[in-house]
Amino acid sequence: MQNMNNNVAEIVTVNMGPQHPSTHGVLRLVVDLDGETIVNVTPDVGYLHRGTEKLAENRTYHQFIPLTDRLDYLSPLSNNLAYCLAVEKFFGVKIPERADYMRVIYAELARVASHLVWIATHALDIGAMTVFLYAFRERERVLDMFECATGQRMTSSWIRIGGVRADAPEEFFKLAKDFVDEFDGFVDLYENLLTNNRIWKMRTIGIGMLNADDAQDYGTSGPLMRGAGIDFDLRRDEPYCCYDKFQFEIPTQPEGDTYARYKVRMKELREANKIVAQALENLPEGPIMTDDPRVAMPAHEDVYERMESLIRRFYLISKGFRPPKGETYQGIEAPKGELGFYIVSEGEERPYRLKIRAPSYVNLGVLNHMAQGHMLADLVAIIGTNDVVLGEIDR
Amino acid sequence: MLLPIVFTIIKILIIVTVILLAVAYMTYAERKVIGAMQVRLGPTHTGPYGLLQPIADAVKLIAKEDLTPDMVDRPVFIIAPLLTMVPALAGFAVIPFADNFTMFGMEIKPYITDLNIGLLYVLAISSVGTYGVIMSGWASNSKYALLGSLRSSAQVLSYETAMGLSLVAPVLLAGSLSLREITLAQAGMWFVVPQIVAFVVYVIAAVAETNRAPFDLAEAETEIVAGFHVEYSSMKFALFFLGEYANMYLVSTIATVMFLGGWNGPLLPPLVWFVIKVLFIMFIFLWLRATLPRLRFDQLMSLGWKVLIPIALANLMITAIVVHIVR
Questions:
Q1: Phi then psi dihedrals of residue B213, to 5 deg
Q2: I need a labelling partner for A50 at 20 to 30 A (CA). Which of A146, A355, B127, B229 fits?
Q3: Hey, is the C-beta of A21 within 8 angstroms of any chain B C-beta?
C-alpha cells in the first residue's frame, strides 16, 4: 500500500478546507503529501468556536439547555439529555418512569437521525449519490416527529432538568409507530446499494485502519471504538435513564477499517430502532416531570392557591436553583461516542466551570493515525468514517 | 451526378441535427431518470413537464460571458473544445441506422457512407477526441486543468485498449470491418450471445472512455472539484458537455451495431429497433450513475490494465481459435 522508496521524496503541503465539500463543516486539514500518498494530516479546528463552555458560567442551569442543542447539531436531544443527567446528579433527582422512556425514545431517534446523515454524506463523498437522497428522505421523517413532539426540527431543547418539557401529542406516537415498523426496510435499502457493492468494498476495506490498542490509546469512543473490536457501550455498561430495561445488542467488528465501522453503524441503526420500538410498546402512563421541589416548577393550581408555591415559582424563574457544592460528571452514549458533561458547582445558581467531553473532538485526534500511508482520495472516506460534527469540536 | 452529393449533404444535415437534439434531450432524460431513481422530480417548470429545460440551458450558456483567461495559449484553447465535439459527431458517418429501403422508386441508404474499414474509422476518429482533453489542459495554463486532463487522458487511453480488443472479437465472427456487413451478419443471432464477455468488457470500457460514473474521476467534486474544463466558460464549456454526451451516443451506437444486432429485430421497423437499443445502452449509463460509488484513480487503472485487457485478450484468442476451427 505504501510505496515510499528511499529517494529523498519531495513533500508537498496542501491545504484542504475549511471550505471544501467533503470536510463536513469548517474543518481545515493541512495535508503533507508524497505524490498522492498522505504523510501527515494536521486538523486545524476552531473556525466555529463560540465559547459555549464559558457562556455556561454566566447562565443559570436552565438557561444553558438551548446552548447544548448547538453542539452536535445532528442529534440535539442527546446533548440535552447528557447535560440534564449531569445536573440531576447533583440532586439525585428521581425521574418519573414515563419521562425516562420518552428520553430514551428521543435519544435513540436522535441517533437514527445522526447516523442517517452520516451514511448519506459518507456515501456521497465516495460517489454514491442515491444513498444520500434516500437517507435524507428518512431523516426528514425523524425531524417531522421531532417537530411534532417538540415544535422544532433540529434545535429542540426539549429535555429539562427533572424530566421532559411536556408530553408528546398522540400524533407523535402514530408517526413514530409507523416509522419504526418501516425503518428496517429502509436500512435494507441502503445496505442493498452498499454492503455487497464491489466498488464500495474496494473504497472502504483496509482503509483507515485503527486497531483496538490504538483506539484505546487515542481515547476514541462510539462506533470508532466498536469498529476496532472493543465491546464497550455506556448504555449497557453504565446504564443511565432506563436502558437496562431494554433488549438490544452492541454491534462490534474486529477489523477496524472503514468497512467495519460502516457495518457497526448500520447495525446500530437497526438496534436503535429496536429500542424505540420497545419503548413505544412498554411506555408507562404517568407524569413526565418530577415533582422534586428543588428543580421542578410547582404545579399551576398550587401557584394560584398557595403562597409557598408562588414564592418558589418566582424564585426558580428569577434566580434558578442552587446545586450543592461539588462536582459531577455524566457521560452518555451519544451517536458519535461518549458525550460527557463535567460540572463544578460552588453552590451558586450558575456553574463555576463546565467542561464538555465532545466525542467528535477526541475522535478527530485519531485522523492522522488513520490517514497516514493512504492516498489523498481516501482522505474523504476517512473523514466520512470518522463522522465528526464541527459544532461540538469547536464548541 | 449532382444528385448523390445533394443526397449526402441532406443526410449529413439530418443526422447532425438529430444527434444534437438527441444530445440536448439526453440531459433532460438524465435528470428525469436519475430524479425518478432518487425520489426527486427533475425539471418541471420550464415548459410542460420541464420539456424546454435543455433549450433554456442552451440559451443560458450562449448568453454567458465567454471568458478567456489572460495567460492561455489562445489558438489551442479555442481548438480544444471543438476537438472533443467534432470527432464525436464525425463518428456517426459510418453508422448504418437501418437497412436499405426503397422510397419513391429510389433505393435509399440510411447511412452517410459504408466504409469497408468502418470500425477502424470510428475507433480512429474517436481517439482524436482525446487530443481535445490534453490540449484543453495544456492550453489553460492552470495546474488543476493540467492534472485533470492528464488523469482523463490516461484513463481514456488505457480503456481504449480494452475497448478495441473487445471489438475485434465480433469482427472475427462477421469477417468484415464494415459496420453494415457486421449488422447483416447478425441477422440470425446477435453477437451479444456468443460474445457476452466481450460485450461486458466493451460496456465497462465505454463507460470509462466517456468519463462517466463510476469512472467520473475528472468530475469528482468531493476530491478535485473539476477537471480539465475548469477554465472554460459559456459555449466552449457547453461544447465539452455536448462532446461528452455525443460520445456516449457514439459508444452506445457502436455497442448496438457490434453486439446487439443493429437494426435487426422482429415486428418493429428497423430504425425503431436501432433507436430502442441505443436508448437501452444510454439508460444503462444513467443507471450506473445513480447506483455506483466512484473508484479511486489507482483502482481505476488497475481495473483497466490488470482485469479488462487480459480478459479481452483471452476472449479474443478463444474466439480466433473457434472461428479458425469452424471455418
A1: -60, 145
A2: A146
A3: yes
